[in-house]
Design brief:
The protein is of the alpha/beta class. 48% of the residues lie in helices and 18% in strands. The longest helix has 47 residues. The relative contact order is 0.07.
């Protein structure tokens, strides 16, 4: 499909990658990873034909159709949303025009048999291509994709220039999904999505028949969608089979092997240097010394892998607040005629770590800003608890950095107790390396400003921190550092985020906000997702129950039954996979416990006290593991039976 052959590219005199070779085949689902600045976006733009390489060749399969979603701002104007979305159907429109032309040409009675046969063959090819593109359901597909990405039907006739930047990116995403591409190149596709539209996009892409190349720092997203990982490291490509988690395991093993080889090489170098120093001036050893010197000159030095695991940033210990951090009573808020909240109630207790989730535009950011005291509300009371100190982060706050201060001065001004070395270490973990720390805030990009604002938050002594989409401009390492800091934070937290993997170990309460209703889920994000899935299944059953009414045609009945089978499959496939994995683990543990039990009945075991102790320990551990996995297996089967009963 796509061949990259000896591709090289430089930026500011430095190679991003050099003489790389890679093939993208039909059906590949690739996660493209690497540190910020290694050239991930450049690779996508090379494949899309937007930038030229310094050397090498790019070979594309003939007539390949490529859809590219850039990370940069995309704008649309002058057309309604539905018209802009339907412009992605240009292939179908052109084919339909050709079909019309050929049909008219065939009506000419003066055609020769040869001319008529030629037109019939052409028309057959056009019909075949229209069938491939599913042209008959194209209009409904456009609407389905727009609704799936979070647009309302009332948005369809709005002009696109009335939509904000995040919604503009959704329009661009909708257009590449509407067009039936052979290859999708997606650069941070989840940045502007809420949890609902993110789940919809994952389901859509799971059923996408073409190839995918995705750049994303959303681990859950790429784990579910990719089966290959392509890493850009040291100006080269390293390919791994499997999802992102598999890649991390491979990388850890590779790094461990590299460290071992490095240590072996260092020992060998020291031995060689000692030999040279010891016998350098002995004539009888001159040949051996020269030989060792040449060996040193030829040796290819092994470099240690980058180690970011040792970076451990903690929030300053906050002042203890009262039991209640903040309470909103009978709050109402409108923007013009748009009523967001009516008599809403909300409370944050000390130590709670809360995720705000729900569709974009439902009021997550509005509620966060009301709690932070950033915006006014129409009526109600905002009661701040004893000793509550609030810090708030969002993109618009990041834009308010003082433009005349450099990055280091910005942080030094709020944390005079920190050394310059400590501040530079913090900035380094958020991708500000070397002289970057002396950049003035006024010249920073939006993403850089966001990272500086996050660093400021990490230096505050607040006991209630509110973060609105903090991960949008972070690479995986920086995100992990922030995540660990939030896990260890001893205050209260509100996170507006759609990043399930980021939220999973952090939050202990989820708040779903939609249509002015604030609904609490006391538990982690997985508990919330399971409850949402139960609600969806209930809606499916209520809305899609098959009534074998005489008014249903046989064809329609079959279609509905097929749809229900597909819904049942989608609802149970992950659970069935986990049950199968659990059963394999149960068999393995049963064999192990049986063997260890036999060992414990063997008198030879007790002739060695250490062996007896170790065997007993292993037996007890295996037995506990077996009991745990059996319990999980029973719970999963109960859950499966519950889901299947909803489709019976």
């Amino acid at each position: 499909m796509i061949d990259l052959v000896n591709i090289s590219l430089q930026f500011n005199g430095k190679y991003l990658f050099r003489d790389i070779n890679y093939r993208i085949s039909s059906g590949d689902r690739i996660s493209l990873v690497g540190a910020n600045g290694t050239g991930k976006t450049s690779i996508l733009r090379i494949i899309n034909g937007e930038i030229e390489t310094e050397s090498g060749n790019l070979y594309k399969q003939k007539n390949i159709s490529i859809g590219y979603l850039p990370q940069d701002q995309v704008t649309h104007s002058g057309r309604t949303l539905i018209t802009e979305a339907e412009s992605a159907l240009s292939d179908i429109v052109q084919l339909q025009e050709k079909e019309k032309y050929l049909s008219q040409a065939l009506s000419n009675s003066k055609l020769t048999d040869e001319e008529r046969n030629d037109l019939i063959n052409q028309l057959g090819e056009v019909h075949h291509r229209l069938e491939e593109l599913d042209s008959f359901s194209a209009s409904s597909k456009v609407e389905k994709i727009l609704l799936g990405l979070g647009f309302e039907e009332s948005d369809f006739e709005k002009l696109t220039n009335h939509f904000s930047g995040g919604w503009q990116m959704r329009i661009a995403l909708a257009k590449i999904l509407i067009r039936q591409n052979d290859l999708l190149l997606m650069d941070e596709p989840t940045n502007h999505l809420d949890l609902d539209s993110l789940e919809w996009l994952m389901d859509f892409l799971k059923n996408f028949k073409g190839a995918l190349v995705i750049v994303s720092h959303d681990k859950n997203f790429i784990n579910q969608l990719t089966n290959k990982t392509l890493e850009i490291f040291n100006n080269n490509f390293f390919s791994y089979t499997g999802d992102y988690d598999s890649y991390i395991r491979y990388k850890q093993e590779r790094d461990e092997q590299t460290i071992q080889l490095y240590e072996q090489q260092q020992r060998k170098l020291k031995d060689t240097q000692r030999f040279i120093e010891r016998f350098r001036y002995k004539n009888t050893k001159a040949k051996q010394v020269q030989s060792r010197i040449k060996q040193l000159e030829k040796i290819e030095m092994i470099e240690l892998p980058e180690d970011k695991a040792e970076i451990n940033i903690r929030f300053p210990e906050p002042q203890q607040s009262g039991r209640v951090n903040i309470e909103l009573k009978n709050i109402s808020k409108s923007y013009g005629s748009n009523r967001v909240f009516e008599s809403a109630e909300f409370k944050v207790d000390r130590g709670e770590k809360i995720a705000f989730v729900g569709p974009n535009g439902a009021g997550k950011t509005t509620l966060a800003k009301i709690i932070a005291g950033v915006i006014d509300f129409d009526k109600g009371d905002r009661v701040i608890g004893h000793n509550t100190l609030i810090s708030y982060y969002a993109q618009d706050v990041a834009d308010n950095l003082k433009p005349e201060l450099d990055i280091l001065e910005t942080l030094d001004g709020i944390a005079p107790d920190k050394t310059l070395g400590q501040l530079r270490s913090l900035l380094g973990s958020f991708l500000f390396i070397g002289d970057d720390v002396f950049k003035k805030a006024g010249v920073l990009s939006g993403g850089e400003k966001s990272r500086v604002a996050l660093c400021k938050i990490l230096l505050t002594k607040s006991n209630l921190i509110i973060l609105d989409e903090p991960t949008n401009h972070l690479d995986y390492s920086s995100k992990k550092i922030l995540q660990n800091a939030l896990i260890n934070f001893n205050g209260s937290l509100i996170l507006v985020s759609h990043d399930v993997d980021f939220l999973r170990p952090v939050v202990n309460r989820v708040v779903d906000i939609r249509k002015g209703i604030i609904k609490n889920y006391p538990g982690n994000i997985d508990y919330y997702l399971s409850k949402r899935e139960e609600l969806k299944l209930s809606e499916i059953v209520n809305n899609k129950k098959i009534t074998r009414d005489d008014t249903l045609s046989r064809k329609e009945l079959k279609r509905i039954e097929a749809e229900q089978r597909q819904q049942k499959y989608l609802a149970t496939k992950d659970l069935l996979k986990r049950i199968s994995e659990a059963e394999s683990k149960i068999s393995e543990l049963e064999r192990l416990t049986k063997q260890l039990e036999l060992n414990l009945t063997d008198p030879k075991t007790y002739s060695n006290p250490e062996l007896a102790k170790e065997t007993t320990k292993k037996f007890n551990s295996a037995k506990t593991d077996l009991e745990d996995i059996l319990f999980q297996w029973e719970m999963m089967n109960e859950k499966l039976a519950e889901i299947e009963s909803q489709f019976s």
